[in-house]
Design goal:
Layout (H helix, E strand, L loop, with lengths): L3 E7 L6 H11 L6 E7 L9 H5 L4 E4 L8 H15 L3 E4 L2 H7 L7 E6 L5 H7 L1 H16 L3 E4 L2 H11 L4 E2 L13 H11 L6 E6 L8 H9 L6 E6 L5 H7 L4 E5 L4 H7 L2 E4 L8 H9 L3 E4 L2 H7 L8 E4 L4 H11 L4 H15 L2 H17 L1
Parallel strand pairs: 1-2, 1-4, 2-3, 4-5, 5-6, 6-7, 8-9, 8-11, 9-10, 11-12, 12-13
Length: about 375
Protein backbone atom coordinates (compact mmCIF):
# COMPACT_ATOMS: atom_id res chain seq x y z
CA UNK A 1 0.00 0.00 0.00
CA UNK A 2 1.30 3.44 -0.95
CA UNK A 3 2.11 5.60 2.02
CA UNK A 4 0.57 9.03 2.47
CA UNK A 5 3.25 11.72 2.67
CA UNK A 6 2.47 14.51 5.13
CA UNK A 7 4.60 17.64 5.22
CA UNK A 8 4.20 19.67 8.40
CA UNK A 9 4.83 23.42 8.20
CA UNK A 10 5.67 25.41 11.33
CA UNK A 11 7.69 28.50 12.20
CA UNK A 12 10.13 26.62 14.43
CA UNK A 13 10.36 23.65 16.77
CA UNK A 14 10.53 25.74 19.94
CA UNK A 15 8.94 24.28 23.07
CA UNK A 16 5.54 25.94 22.74
CA UNK A 17 1.93 24.82 22.32
CA UNK A 18 1.67 24.26 18.51
CA UNK A 19 5.04 22.49 18.38
CA UNK A 20 4.07 20.21 21.24
CA UNK A 21 0.75 19.33 19.61
CA UNK A 22 2.58 18.48 16.38
CA UNK A 23 5.11 16.38 18.33
CA UNK A 24 2.31 14.40 19.95
CA UNK A 25 0.62 13.76 16.61
CA UNK A 26 3.86 12.48 15.06
CA UNK A 27 4.80 10.45 18.13
CA UNK A 28 1.89 8.05 17.59
CA UNK A 29 1.73 8.06 13.77
CA UNK A 30 1.64 4.70 12.01
CA UNK A 31 4.83 5.04 9.98
CA UNK A 32 3.80 2.01 7.92
CA UNK A 33 1.05 4.24 6.50
CA UNK A 34 2.62 7.70 6.62
CA UNK A 35 5.85 9.33 5.47
CA UNK A 36 6.62 12.56 7.30
CA UNK A 37 8.56 15.73 6.56
CA UNK A 38 8.76 18.93 8.59
CA UNK A 39 9.67 22.32 7.14
CA UNK A 40 10.58 25.10 9.59
CA UNK A 41 10.54 28.73 8.54
CA UNK A 42 12.60 30.74 11.06
CA UNK A 43 15.71 30.15 13.19
CA UNK A 44 15.35 27.94 16.26
CA UNK A 45 15.20 29.37 19.78
CA UNK A 46 17.15 28.12 22.80
CA UNK A 47 14.21 25.96 23.89
CA UNK A 48 14.03 24.12 20.56
CA UNK A 49 12.83 20.49 20.48
CA UNK A 50 14.76 19.83 17.27
CA UNK A 51 16.76 16.95 18.75
CA UNK A 52 13.62 15.25 20.06
CA UNK A 53 11.95 15.45 16.64
CA UNK A 54 15.12 14.11 15.02
CA UNK A 55 14.64 10.78 16.81
CA UNK A 56 11.56 10.02 14.70
CA UNK A 57 11.90 8.38 11.24
CA UNK A 58 11.19 11.71 9.55
CA UNK A 59 13.04 14.38 7.55
CA UNK A 60 13.38 17.95 8.84
CA UNK A 61 14.14 20.86 6.50
CA UNK A 62 15.15 24.27 7.90
CA UNK A 63 14.56 27.03 5.37
CA UNK A 64 16.33 29.70 7.41
CA UNK A 65 18.39 28.16 10.24
CA UNK A 66 20.55 31.22 10.89
CA UNK A 67 18.61 34.34 9.90
CA UNK A 68 15.09 35.55 9.16
CA UNK A 69 14.11 35.76 5.50
CA UNK A 70 11.77 38.41 4.14
CA UNK A 71 8.32 37.06 3.15
CA UNK A 72 9.06 36.84 -0.59
CA UNK A 73 12.34 34.97 -0.12
CA UNK A 74 10.74 32.71 2.48
CA UNK A 75 7.85 31.86 0.16
CA UNK A 76 10.22 31.19 -2.73
CA UNK A 77 12.33 28.87 -0.57
CA UNK A 78 9.22 27.11 0.73
CA UNK A 79 7.75 26.59 -2.73
CA UNK A 80 11.03 25.13 -3.98
CA UNK A 81 11.37 22.82 -0.95
CA UNK A 82 7.78 21.57 -1.11
CA UNK A 83 8.14 20.87 -4.84
CA UNK A 84 11.17 18.71 -4.03
CA UNK A 85 9.37 16.88 -1.21
CA UNK A 86 6.18 16.50 -3.27
CA UNK A 87 3.89 15.54 -0.36
CA UNK A 88 0.26 14.48 -0.54
CA UNK A 89 -0.75 16.86 2.24
CA UNK A 90 0.57 20.01 3.83
CA UNK A 91 -0.30 20.52 7.50
CA UNK A 92 0.28 24.04 8.87
CA UNK A 93 0.49 24.78 12.59
CA UNK A 94 0.87 28.56 12.85
CA UNK A 95 -0.45 31.68 11.06
CA UNK A 96 2.84 32.25 9.20
CA UNK A 97 2.80 28.74 7.75
CA UNK A 98 -0.94 28.99 7.05
CA UNK A 99 -0.55 32.15 4.96
CA UNK A 100 2.37 30.78 2.94
CA UNK A 101 0.75 27.36 2.47
CA UNK A 102 -2.30 28.88 0.82
CA UNK A 103 -0.16 30.34 -1.99
CA UNK A 104 1.32 26.94 -2.87
CA UNK A 105 -0.12 24.86 -5.74
CA UNK A 106 -3.57 23.42 -5.11
CA UNK A 107 -2.45 19.87 -5.88
CA UNK A 108 -1.28 19.64 -2.27
CA UNK A 109 -4.17 19.08 0.15
CA UNK A 110 -4.14 21.74 2.89
CA UNK A 111 -4.66 20.93 6.57
CA UNK A 112 -4.49 23.54 9.30
CA UNK A 113 -4.73 23.12 13.08
CA UNK A 114 -6.45 26.12 14.66
CA UNK A 115 -4.71 26.37 18.02
CA UNK A 116 -6.87 29.26 19.18
CA UNK A 117 -9.96 30.96 17.77
CA UNK A 118 -8.82 34.28 16.18
CA UNK A 119 -9.95 37.06 18.47
CA UNK A 120 -8.88 38.60 21.75
CA UNK A 121 -5.35 37.17 21.86
CA UNK A 122 -4.36 38.85 18.59
CA UNK A 123 -5.84 42.16 19.78
CA UNK A 124 -3.80 41.96 22.98
CA UNK A 125 -0.61 41.01 21.15
CA UNK A 126 -0.85 43.53 18.30
CA UNK A 127 -3.34 46.17 19.45
CA UNK A 128 -6.95 46.28 18.35
CA UNK A 129 -6.46 47.72 14.84
CA UNK A 130 -3.61 45.44 13.78
CA UNK A 131 -5.10 42.53 15.74
CA UNK A 132 -8.38 42.81 13.81
CA UNK A 133 -6.43 42.71 10.54
CA UNK A 134 -4.59 39.56 11.68
CA UNK A 135 -7.89 37.96 12.72
CA UNK A 136 -9.43 38.74 9.32
CA UNK A 137 -6.42 37.23 7.54
CA UNK A 138 -6.58 34.11 9.72
CA UNK A 139 -10.24 33.58 8.86
CA UNK A 140 -9.62 34.26 5.16
CA UNK A 141 -6.80 31.75 4.82
CA UNK A 142 -8.45 29.17 7.09
CA UNK A 143 -11.39 29.19 4.68
CA UNK A 144 -9.02 28.24 1.84
CA UNK A 145 -7.92 25.02 3.59
CA UNK A 146 -9.24 21.61 2.64
CA UNK A 147 -9.33 20.53 6.27
CA UNK A 148 -9.22 23.10 9.07
CA UNK A 149 -9.15 21.37 12.47
CA UNK A 150 -9.98 23.01 15.80
CA UNK A 151 -7.82 22.05 18.78
CA UNK A 152 -10.90 21.85 21.00
CA UNK A 153 -14.63 21.26 20.60
CA UNK A 154 -15.17 24.85 21.70
CA UNK A 155 -13.12 26.13 18.72
CA UNK A 156 -15.48 24.37 16.34
CA UNK A 157 -18.47 25.75 18.21
CA UNK A 158 -17.12 29.30 17.95
CA UNK A 159 -16.69 28.95 14.18
CA UNK A 160 -20.22 27.59 13.86
CA UNK A 161 -21.64 30.38 16.03
CA UNK A 162 -19.68 33.29 14.57
CA UNK A 163 -19.05 32.21 10.97
CA UNK A 164 -21.56 29.47 10.24
CA UNK A 165 -18.69 27.13 9.31
CA UNK A 166 -18.56 23.45 10.21
CA UNK A 167 -15.05 22.85 11.53
CA UNK A 168 -13.77 19.40 12.50
CA UNK A 169 -12.56 19.45 16.13
CA UNK A 170 -9.88 17.15 17.52
CA UNK A 171 -9.07 18.01 21.16
CA UNK A 172 -5.40 18.36 22.05
CA UNK A 173 -3.73 15.51 23.92
CA UNK A 174 -0.81 15.12 26.30
CA UNK A 175 1.81 12.37 26.30
CA UNK A 176 2.69 12.68 30.00
CA UNK A 177 2.12 9.43 31.92
CA UNK A 178 -0.53 9.04 34.60
CA UNK A 179 0.98 9.66 38.02
CA UNK A 180 -0.06 7.30 40.79
CA UNK A 181 -0.63 9.47 43.87
CA UNK A 182 2.26 9.04 46.29
CA UNK A 183 2.50 11.38 49.26
CA UNK A 184 6.03 10.28 50.08
CA UNK A 185 7.20 11.13 46.55
CA UNK A 186 5.34 14.45 46.75
CA UNK A 187 7.16 15.39 49.97
CA UNK A 188 10.51 14.37 48.48
CA UNK A 189 9.94 16.48 45.35
CA UNK A 190 8.84 19.45 47.44
CA UNK A 191 12.01 19.22 49.51
CA UNK A 192 14.14 19.14 46.32
CA UNK A 193 12.32 22.16 44.91
CA UNK A 194 12.32 24.13 48.15
CA UNK A 195 8.53 24.05 48.51
CA UNK A 196 6.90 24.32 51.94
CA UNK A 197 5.39 20.96 52.88
CA UNK A 198 2.86 22.55 55.22
CA UNK A 199 1.04 24.49 52.45
CA UNK A 200 -1.49 23.48 49.83
CA UNK A 201 -0.41 24.92 46.49
CA UNK A 202 -2.26 25.93 43.35
CA UNK A 203 -0.12 25.90 40.20
CA UNK A 204 -0.19 28.31 37.25
CA UNK A 205 1.79 27.44 34.11
CA UNK A 206 2.01 29.86 31.21
CA UNK A 207 3.28 33.08 29.76
CA UNK A 208 3.41 36.06 32.10
CA UNK A 209 1.40 38.30 29.80
CA UNK A 210 -1.84 40.27 30.04
CA UNK A 211 -4.18 37.73 28.45
CA UNK A 212 -3.14 35.09 31.04
CA UNK A 213 -3.84 37.47 33.99
CA UNK A 214 -0.95 36.34 36.23
CA UNK A 215 -1.13 39.74 37.96
CA UNK A 216 -4.69 38.97 39.07
CA UNK A 217 -3.57 35.66 40.58
CA UNK A 218 -0.74 37.36 42.48
CA UNK A 219 -3.23 39.89 43.84
CA UNK A 220 -5.63 37.11 44.86
CA UNK A 221 -3.05 35.01 46.69
CA UNK A 222 -1.36 38.05 48.27
CA UNK A 223 -4.72 38.97 49.77
CA UNK A 224 -5.56 35.57 51.25
CA UNK A 225 -5.91 35.70 55.02
CA UNK A 226 -5.03 32.02 55.30
CA UNK A 227 -1.31 31.84 54.52
CA UNK A 228 -1.10 28.04 54.41
CA UNK A 229 -2.49 28.32 50.87
CA UNK A 230 0.15 29.02 48.23
CA UNK A 231 0.67 29.57 44.52
CA UNK A 232 3.38 28.20 42.21
CA UNK A 233 3.82 30.18 38.97
CA UNK A 234 5.88 28.62 36.17
CA UNK A 235 6.86 30.41 32.98
CA UNK A 236 8.24 33.75 31.91
CA UNK A 237 7.19 36.80 29.95
CA UNK A 238 6.97 40.59 30.16
CA UNK A 239 5.21 40.65 33.57
CA UNK A 240 7.54 38.17 35.28
CA UNK A 241 10.00 40.56 36.91
CA UNK A 242 7.33 42.91 38.26
CA UNK A 243 5.21 40.10 39.70
CA UNK A 244 8.19 38.38 41.30
CA UNK A 245 8.86 41.56 43.24
CA UNK A 246 5.20 41.87 44.32
CA UNK A 247 4.75 38.26 45.41
CA UNK A 248 4.54 37.45 49.11
CA UNK A 249 6.13 34.41 50.75
CA UNK A 250 3.23 32.07 49.88
CA UNK A 251 3.87 32.61 46.13
CA UNK A 252 6.73 30.80 44.37
CA UNK A 253 7.87 32.17 40.98
CA UNK A 254 10.89 30.15 39.80
CA UNK A 255 10.59 31.20 36.14
CA UNK A 256 11.08 28.85 33.21
CA UNK A 257 11.93 25.28 34.21
CA UNK A 258 12.32 21.89 32.60
CA UNK A 259 10.83 20.24 35.71
CA UNK A 260 7.18 21.05 35.00
CA UNK A 261 6.04 17.49 35.72
CA UNK A 262 7.73 17.53 39.14
CA UNK A 263 6.10 20.85 40.00
CA UNK A 264 2.73 19.39 38.98
CA UNK A 265 3.31 16.45 41.35
CA UNK A 266 4.28 18.89 44.09
CA UNK A 267 1.08 20.92 43.65
CA UNK A 268 -2.44 20.25 44.96
CA UNK A 269 -4.59 22.19 42.49
CA UNK A 270 -4.38 23.70 39.00
CA UNK A 271 -5.41 27.30 38.30
CA UNK A 272 -5.81 29.29 35.08
CA UNK A 273 -7.08 32.88 34.93
CA UNK A 274 -6.69 33.24 31.15
CA UNK A 275 -8.99 35.43 29.08
CA UNK A 276 -8.38 33.22 26.05
CA UNK A 277 -7.08 29.69 25.33
CA UNK A 278 -7.43 27.06 22.65
CA UNK A 279 -7.11 23.92 24.74
CA UNK A 280 -4.04 24.53 26.88
CA UNK A 281 -1.57 21.66 27.10
CA UNK A 282 -0.93 22.67 30.70
CA UNK A 283 -4.45 21.82 31.83
CA UNK A 284 -4.12 18.42 30.16
CA UNK A 285 -0.75 17.87 31.83
CA UNK A 286 -2.29 18.73 35.21
CA UNK A 287 -4.95 16.07 34.56
CA UNK A 288 -2.28 13.35 34.35
CA UNK A 289 -1.48 14.15 37.98
CA UNK A 290 -5.17 14.47 38.83
CA UNK A 291 -5.19 18.06 40.07
CA UNK A 292 -8.62 19.61 40.79
CA UNK A 293 -9.10 22.73 38.66
CA UNK A 294 -9.90 26.38 39.27
CA UNK A 295 -10.61 27.85 35.84
CA UNK A 296 -11.62 31.19 34.34
CA UNK A 297 -14.92 31.39 32.48
CA UNK A 298 -13.87 30.78 28.85
CA UNK A 299 -15.15 28.18 26.33
CA UNK A 300 -12.26 25.69 26.48
CA UNK A 301 -12.30 25.64 30.28
CA UNK A 302 -16.04 25.03 30.35
CA UNK A 303 -15.55 22.29 27.77
CA UNK A 304 -13.19 20.37 30.05
CA UNK A 305 -15.33 20.73 33.19
CA UNK A 306 -18.44 19.62 31.30
CA UNK A 307 -16.87 16.17 31.05
CA UNK A 308 -17.51 15.77 34.80
CA UNK A 309 -20.51 15.91 37.14
CA UNK A 310 -21.02 19.55 38.17
CA UNK A 311 -18.67 20.83 40.88
CA UNK A 312 -17.02 17.41 41.31
CA UNK A 313 -13.44 18.22 40.21
CA UNK A 314 -13.28 22.00 39.93
CA UNK A 315 -14.96 25.36 39.53
CA UNK A 316 -15.28 28.22 37.08
CA UNK A 317 -14.41 31.57 38.65
CA UNK A 318 -14.69 35.23 37.69
CA UNK A 319 -11.15 36.32 36.78
CA UNK A 320 -12.00 39.96 37.48
CA UNK A 321 -13.49 39.40 40.94
CA UNK A 322 -11.20 38.72 43.90
CA UNK A 323 -14.06 37.86 46.30
CA UNK A 324 -15.52 35.26 43.93
CA UNK A 325 -12.07 33.74 43.44
CA UNK A 326 -11.49 33.58 47.22
CA UNK A 327 -14.84 31.81 47.60
CA UNK A 328 -14.02 29.24 44.89
CA UNK A 329 -10.61 28.59 46.46
CA UNK A 330 -12.31 27.83 49.79
CA UNK A 331 -14.78 25.50 48.04
CA UNK A 332 -12.14 23.53 46.16
CA UNK A 333 -10.20 23.01 49.38
CA UNK A 334 -13.14 20.90 50.63
CA UNK A 335 -12.78 18.29 47.85
CA UNK A 336 -11.99 14.66 48.55
CA UNK A 337 -8.62 14.80 46.77
CA UNK A 338 -8.34 11.06 46.15
CA UNK A 339 -11.78 10.76 44.56
CA UNK A 340 -11.29 13.90 42.42
CA UNK A 341 -7.90 12.63 41.23
CA UNK A 342 -9.34 9.31 40.05
CA UNK A 343 -12.18 11.03 38.16
CA UNK A 344 -9.82 13.49 36.48
CA UNK A 345 -7.34 10.83 35.38
CA UNK A 346 -10.12 8.58 34.05
CA UNK A 347 -11.47 11.38 31.84
CA UNK A 348 -7.94 12.23 30.69
CA UNK A 349 -7.36 8.64 29.56
CA UNK A 350 -10.66 8.56 27.67
CA UNK A 351 -10.40 11.89 25.84
CA UNK A 352 -7.09 13.74 26.19
CA UNK A 353 -4.12 11.44 25.61
CA UNK A 354 -1.71 12.14 22.77
CA UNK A 355 -2.49 8.69 21.36
CA UNK A 356 -6.23 9.42 21.18
CA UNK A 357 -5.48 12.75 19.48
CA UNK A 358 -2.99 11.28 16.98
CA UNK A 359 -5.35 8.47 15.99
CA UNK A 360 -8.09 11.02 15.29
CA UNK A 361 -5.70 13.02 13.07
CA UNK A 362 -4.65 9.87 11.19
CA UNK A 363 -8.30 9.03 10.53
CA UNK A 364 -8.85 12.59 9.24
CA UNK A 365 -5.76 12.36 6.98
CA UNK A 366 -6.98 9.10 5.42
CA UNK A 367 -10.51 10.40 4.87
CA UNK A 368 -9.15 13.52 3.20
CA UNK A 369 -6.86 11.41 1.01
CA UNK A 370 -9.75 9.17 -0.01
CA UNK A 371 -11.78 12.22 -1.09
Amino acid sequence: MKKTHICYLISSLCNEGPTNVMYNIIQYLDFDKFDVSIVTLVPEKENSRFQEFSKFPITIYQLSPNRFLNPLKLYSALRKQVKTINPDKLHAHCPRSLYLMCFLPRKYKRVYTIHIYPGLQQQILYGKFKGDIVNTLNHFFTRKCDLPIGCALSVGELYKENKGWNILSIPNGSSLPIWQRNEEEKRKIRTELGIDNSRKYFIFIGRFSNEKNPDFLVEVFNSLEEKNIGLIMLGNGPLWETLKQKAQSNIIIPGFTARVYDYLKAANYYVSASDVEGLANTILESMTVGLPMLLSDIPSHREVLQRFPQNSVGFIFDNKNIEDTHAKINEILQFDAEEATKNIQDVFCDFYTAKVMSEAYQKAYIELFNK
